[in-house]
Amino acid sequence: MTRFDPFSDFRMDGHVALVTGGAQNIGEAIARTFAGAGARVMIADLDGKKAQAAAAVIAEESGSDVRGVACDVTVEADIRACVDETVMAFGGVSTLVNNVGWGRAYDDPLAVSDEDMIQSYRLNTLSAMRMAAACRPHLLRAENATITNSGSLVGIQPAFDFIAYSAAKAALNHLMLGLAHYLAREVRINTVLIGTVLTEGYAAAGLDEKAQHALAHPDNLTGRAGTPQDVANAFLWLASRAGSWVSGQTIQVHGGGRRIRLKPE
Description:
CATH superfamily: NAD(P)-binding Rossmann-like Domain
Distance between the termini: 56 Å
Order of helices and strands: EHEHEHEHEHEHHHE
Number of domains: 1
Keywords: Oxidoreductase
CATH topology: Rossmann fold
GO molecular function, one term: oxidoreductase activity
Radius of gyration: 18 Å
Number of helices: 8
CATH class: Alpha Beta
CATH architecture: 3-Layer(aba) Sandwich
Protein name: SDR family oxidoreductase
Family: Belongs to the short-chain dehydrogenases/reductases (SDR) family.
Shape: globular
Strand content: 5-15%
Strand order of the largest sheet: 3-2-1-4-5-6-7
């Protein structure tokens, strides 16, 4: 009798995954996890050399075919070229991960320029839509086709000092829910609402050392900030057969959220 393997549904053998922003941090962890589960992976990143370097390390670790390509997801020609290169290398795309996203802090949210608001939307929202459109013909031919997005808790609980990013991530939630209904029974689409995962991106976003220290010690149910691997594990579940009954969802991965108590400690 064949032994039951409860982990077989988490395997990604036969899948081709395209991961944007995959050269570092959360994106790199997702690419590594998918490759370790058997997928062939294309890492797309603004820094093409960094994407190729990350791909080489992951390929050696996992034994999977992993490659890197330069791509500015705010430029439609780059998106088309990235998808074309992925299809040329691997024969298709079955798994799209829209991981690219970034925002910065503002002292006065009402002073944010129109240009900053629009650019945040281009990077965090519109890029995911354009990438989905470019991949759609290939996803429709794939088995267990999925699009999984890196969202943020500020998309449902806005941070006023990150107002442009918060608004763009809120738009991403609605955009992807609409596409999940539009592509129902053909492509599963979900978004992971990510809590605090400390990376060098926080410093680049304008948070000083004191703010980063506070974020590293959150008052959540688990008592710690997240790691890129915490997030990657959720992406693996949603993209693999293990998540085949999950679509049109925003899944919160954030350490359980803030503890609520009325009596001070």
